[in-house]
Write a structure and sequence with these properties.
Distance between the termini: 49 Å
CATH architecture of the largest domain: 2-Layer Sandwich
CATH class of the largest domain: Alpha Beta
Number of strands: 13
Number of helices: 6
Shape: elongated
Low-confidence stretches: 271-280
Largest sheet: 6 strands, antiparallel
Radius of gyration: 30 Å
Strand order of the largest sheet: 7-3-4-6-1-8
């Protein structure tokens, strides 16, 4: 028999039925009587136990599903981005930018460091490198042109300035339970390959990764426009500057999300098209 959660009223009724079936006297079990009050007090505690058992069982079932399908909470992620160093006097020979070179948001404790050494080429007045925030979480997410302090001088270069040309959006906090539940539901929806939800889910998994394992570009938005015989999937990297490389990567992903007769063409988001779709 399946586990059944009883209400206080049901518990009291069951207790009265059992009690009256076992005694031969006509004790008062009406509302307000001593026996009825004792039954009601016991029923309140037992109903609370039922609710706790039901909630715990649901939580255990949910956690078991997360474990079975490998859905742990996503850890906090340090923000990372490309910053551009500039100098009015280009170097006459290659200059090494050491690993750990530090830049910062002026007036704050928000700092970023180069994860590996890289070489500034001779003759270049500017050079872009990847930096990673020294703190995890969204604290590293900053607006464009706010990372402007060079904390660590670059040996061999003078009057160096630095900035981040784009907004920084890559830092994330530890995933919440609600966020995991939403991510899991999106994954479940995607299991039916070839429908709209699965195509959009698949598109958002497309990303480009550099040699150090950092995501250089990824699909942030996706919209499917269904047509007669073929569909068009518009994607955007969050900056309205989707590269052809990301489009190709997304197409490879989508090829695994269409049925035998489905045809999907992947294109960059058109800015005007995207805004019109947002208003709908």
């Amino acid at each position: 028999m399946a586990f059944q959660v009883l209400t206080e009223t049901q518990i009291v009724a069951n207790l009265i039925d059992t009690y009256t079936s076992l005694i031969t006297t006509s004790d008062d079990v009406n509302t307000g009587s001593v026996i009825r009050s004792a039954f009601e007090a016991f029923a309140q505690e037992l109903a609370r136990l039922y609710r706790n058992a039901q909630e715990n069982a649901a939580e255990i079932q949910k956690m078991a599903a997360y474990t079975m399908f490998n859905f742990p909470l996503l850890p906090a992620q340090e923000a990372y981005t490309m910053v551009t160093f500039s100098t009015p006097t280009p170097p006459t020979s290659p200059v090494t930018i050491p690993a750990g070179t530090t830049v910062a948001v002026p007036g704050t404790n928000i700092q970023y460091q180069t994860p590996a050494a890289t070489t500034w080429p001779a003759g270049a007045t500017s050079f872009s490198v990847r930096v990673v925030c020294t703190q995890t979480g969204t604290i590293g997410n900053q607006r464009a042109n706010t990372v402007t302090q060079l904390v660590t001088p670059i040996p061999g270069l003078n009057n160096v300035t630095v900035t981040n040309p784009r907004d920084i959006r890559t830092g994330t906090n530890l995933e919440t339970e609600d966020q995991r539940a939403n991510r899991f539901q999106q994954w479940v929806n995607s299991l039916h390959r070839g429908d709209v939800r699965s195509l959009i889910y698949g598109a958002k998994t497309a990303q480009l990764v550099d040699q150090y394992g950092y995501v250089t570009e990824q699909v942030m938005k996706a919209q499917l426009v269904e047509g007669n015989g073929s569909n068009t999937l518009y994607i955007d990297n969050g900056y309205y500057s989707t590269s052809q490389q990301l489009v190709q990567q997304c197409q490879q992903v989508i090829n695994g999300y269409t049925d035998q007769n489905g045809v999907v063409h992947v294109n960059q988001f058109l800015y005007r098209l995207f805004l019109s779709q947002i208003r709908i």
